[in-house]
Amino acid sequence: MKPQPKLLRFALFGLLYLTQGVVLGYFASLNALYLLSNGLDMADVGVFSSIALIPFVIKIFFGMLSDRYNFFGLGRRKPYIAIGLLVQAVCLVLAASINPGRQYWTFVGVAFLLQLGMAFYDTCTDGLALDITPADEKGLLQGFMVGGRSVGVIVAASVAGVIAERSWPGVFYFLAAASLLPFLLLFFVREAPESAGERFNWGAFSAFKSRQVLAVAGAGLVIFLVIVGANQLVNPSFSARLGIDLSTAGFITTLWGLGCVGGAFLGGAIMDRAGDRAALWLSVFSVAATLAIMAVVPAVALAYVAAVLFGVAYGSSQAVYFALAMKYTTPAIAASMYSILMAVTNVGQGIGLGLGGVLAKNAGYPAAFLVFAAAMFLVLPFFPVLFRQRVAKPA
Fold first, then answer.
1. Does residue 297 register a pLDDT over 80?
2. pTM of the model
């Protein structure tokens, strides 16, 4: 297949992840406020969040569908991505006309379908990226993906927040419009022709018997346990120790997001140029060092610097791990296998969030950051397995 322009491919994947980031940013920063403003309580918010996230638990099945079935001869990835984007956009338009205080379960149902569409195109986007991205570009690709999602979160926290002050329905229309940003580029990026070795077969799941694949999964669990578990403590720690207010907390979050964008491209570039081992070493030491700094930040001015540095380490670690996981996937089950590896990182996030809360409550924020910094070195035992010479992947 004739090589496709790198800028075109990276622009598509960056926009797909930016779109996802905008919607995820809304759910993370504004949705609870919207539900509370309509007379609901935090118990209702909790039920809503749990149900709405179910599609991301079952998204492996979307990967299997994409890996196995060519959509009426139109492709294994692009048609499913288009369907997911359209489902997301339509559900957001519908959500604008639903009052969650009076039609709670209708709103929950629409949100569930919305997240279903997002999980659908998210999984198939990863599959397309795996199909058409050369091995020496996967690091930079993840820079665009992680960076795009981080930009989306920043946009949601700023633009959507301003719109919400005037019109909540306007927020949903804005999110719906953002959902369609990548749509046009889908028509210009071509899928790779499917070779015999890339056709779906159940036997390809035997790849999970590989010690290297298991090591990739283990490293991902540790990395996301640490970075996500520690990240939830940043603003509460600064609030308790330095007395920051809500506006300052918001500014710190924005600085962290900008750091994530820069870190994503930095980590991806280092991976492509210096290799997987060097990039993962960078991830381990940068996260551990910035968390140690977080534990001892003495003033608000330095908290801004610490937030940027941690954002860089966070974004770099995400990009490095995602690119590493892509390199260990088997072509015949690319989307399925990658979604399983991502599910392991979700388990790590859950453990990290719980552990962080327990540590902060019982030992204090500085101790919690130091424990997470030390835990990052649990990635090192996986190095000998990860970076030995890989054998040929099973078909």
1. yes
2. 0.70
Given pLDDT bands bounded at 50, 70 and 90, which one contains residue 32?
low
Nearest C-alpha neighbor of 29 from the set 297, 259, 235, 314: 235
pLDDT score recorded for residue 304: 92
Residues 164 and 260 in one domain: no
Average pLDDT over residues 218-235: 89
| 197, 201, 333 from 394: Cα distances, Å | 9, 11, 11
35 shares a domain with 150: yes
Q: Which DSSP string corresponds to 96-156?
A: TT--TTTSHHHHHHHHHHHHHHHHHHHHHHHHHHHHHS-GGGHHHHHHHHHHHHHHHHHHI
Domain containing residue 36: CATH number: 1.20.1250.20
Q: Quick one: 164 and 239 in the same domain? A: no
Is the alpha carbon torsion for 245, 351, 129, 315 positive or negative?
Answer: positive
Token pair in block for residue 93? 């338009």
Q: Is the backbone of residue 391 left (phi > 0), alpha (psi -120 to 50) or beta?
A: beta
- Whether 213 and 260 map to the same domain: the answer is yes
Percent of the chain surpassing pLDDT 90: 28
Both 242 and 302 in a single domain? yes
- Outline where DSSP puts E strands in 244-360: none
- Amino acid identity of residue 311, one-letter, is G
Per DSSP, 3 falls in state P
pLDDT digits (tens, 9 = 90+) for 304-350: 999 999 999 998 998 899 888 878 777 666 667 777 787 788 788 77
User: Tens digits of per-residue pLDDT, 231-255?
Assistant: 878 877 887 888 877 567 667 877 8
Q: Which residues contact 107 (CB under 8 A, 6 or more apart)?
A: 48, 95, 98, 99, 100
Q: How far is CA 365 from CA 192, 199, 210, 229, 235, in A?
A: 49, 50, 38, 12, 11
Q: What is the DSSP string of 21-33?
A: HHHHHHHHHTHHH
